[in-house]
Write a structure and sequence with these properties.
- By secondary structure, this protein is an alpha/beta fold.
- It has three domains: 81 residues, no CATH class; 81 residues, no CATH class; 216 residues, Nucleotidyltransferase, domain 5.
- A hairpin with a 4-residue loop joins strand 2 and strand 3.
- Helix 7 packs across helix 8.
- The longest helix has 24 residues.
Length: 429
């Protein structure tokens, strides 16, 4: 504990009151009298005695934490001991029933209350509860304080995606198959020279030229970019990310993104190593299992095109999307596809690389033409392959996970607030 107190005293951002109390305890470790400590620290003698007694009352619990918990937990516990005790303050202005009604109002949609907005503000909530005669008068800041007390944040929103997959077991098996493909990539590469490649398109890359040069960063000044720009068109980038090698092995940049472009990209990717087997991880875009890619894969596998059937007449392999997907994902083929389940693009490793490209090239770039954009993209990918690119450490197996985050012990103040919150929520029930 002595080392932790020393560390606290060296912090610049520590509250002054806690710093003084930590110094009192450190000087007490040196067996100084209260009067001596008060003269050194600059506080009253009775104040020194009060905080020494507070420390003595808490030392057994702190020793138990030191023996069983990480150092960070001990540090937080010591800070809690050195904080001011909770003060009751003046009686509350609003009853528990009124607080419950205010919280219930915050949980309603503003449009149902005749307000043409999607989220509440503190001022609007205050006005609404006054109109409903829940309280006679209340400020917006007080409303926000009550909402913070119950951990309600109406202004915040998280997005989620509702999968259209009707078979949860099928969805789970597809996720596990993709993860197993990543985890087995190194083994199959060493065994039979099978290369696992993530493939996808990055579309609508704007060749936007800023109307003024970017002002570079300076000490105390951040970089400044002109917000207006001239459009010179857009490009689409199709990339192939090798899971084992950890590099972009093939890049196609063109003005269009259709089934023919995708099939030609696959053909060029396979041409980089004709003797290898190939496993492509792709999403469910319809161009990824269209007629052109089936023809290209059949050609590379030496399959007669006449045996593929007819798409218009809906017969054979080309007859439906299901038959085309089954053909492309046939595990007996040396060139096959592993399709991601619906709404699971996060499983595609190349999406990480696309994020890097967007951040390092597109977001702050200025391009005089589409040719300039294409040149800078290809230059960056080459530079990325030589410097930062490496295989991703994929450990996810596809099984549902639960949060195992360590929860620190609550302070006395937090316990008091939790009890009050339970009382309020009990009124709702």
């Amino acid at each position: 504990m002595y080392k932790v107190l020393n560390k606290l005293c060296s912090r610049r951002m520590l509250e002054k009151s806690i710093l003084i109390r930590a110094r009192i305890i450190l000087l007490a470790f040196e067996k100084l009298q209260n009067m001596q400590i008060s003269e050194i620290v600059g506080v009253e003698r009775h104040c020194v005695g009060r905080w020494r007694k507070r420390w003595q009352d808490s030392v057994e619990a702190l020793l138990a934490i030191e023996m069983s918990e990480p150092r960070a937990v001990l540090e937080r516990s010591i800070v809690d001991v050195l904080r001011d005790a909770h003060r009751s303050g003046s009686p509350g202005k609003f009853s528990a029933e009124q607080v419950v009604q205010i919280v219930a109002t915050a949980c309603e949609t503003p449009r149902f209350c005749g307000r043409p907005v999607e989220t509440w503000t503190g001022r609007e909530l205050a006005d609404e509860v006054e109109q409903r005669s829940i309280v006679s008068s209340i400020s917006g800041s007080r409303v926000n304080e009550l909402l913070r007390f119950v951990n309600l944040q109406p202004h915040r929103q998280k997005y989620w995606c509702f999968t259209t997959e009707k078979d949860p077991e099928l969805f789970q098996s597809q996720v596990e198959e993709v993860c197993k493909t990543y985890l087995d990539a190194q083994a199959v590469y060493d065994h039979d020279n099978t290369r696992t490649v993530c493939i996808d398109e990055m579309t609508s890359l704007g060749a936007n030229e800023r109307r003024a040069e970017t002002k570079l960063a300076r000490p105390t000044q951040i970089a400044k970019s002109e917000c207006q720009y001239t459009r010179h068109g857009t490009l689409s980038l199709t990339g192939s990310w090798d899971v084992v090698v950890g590099q972009m092995i093939q890049t196609t940049i063109d003005e269009t993104r259709n089934a023919e472009d995708f099939s030609m990209h696959i053909k060029r990717t396979v041409a980089t190593d004709p003797s290898a087997n190939w496993v492509f991880v792709a999403d469910n875009l319809n161009t990824h299992y269209g007629e052109p890619i089936v023809h290209v894969v059949a050609e590379m596998l030496g399959i007669d095109k006449s045996t593929l059937g007819d798409k218009k007449k809906r017969r054979g392999i080309l007859g439906s999307t299901t038959s085309r997907r089954d053909f492309l994902s046939d595990k007996s083929h040396p060139i096959r596809f592993v399709f991601l389940p619906k709404h699971s693009s996060w499983l595609n490793q190349i999406e990480v690389i696309f994020g890097v490209i967007a951040k390092r090239v597109i977001r702050r770039g200025s391009f005089t033409s589409k040719a300039d954009l294409k040149e800078k993209l290809l230059s960056f990918i080459e530079y990325f392959n030589l410097t930062f690119a490496k295989p991703m450490n994929w450990t996810y197996t596809g099984k549902p996970t639960t949060s195992l985050k360590y929860q620190r012990p609550r302070t006395w103040r937090e316990n008091t607030q939790a009890k009050k919150l339970e009382e309020i929520l009990a009124l709702v029930a």
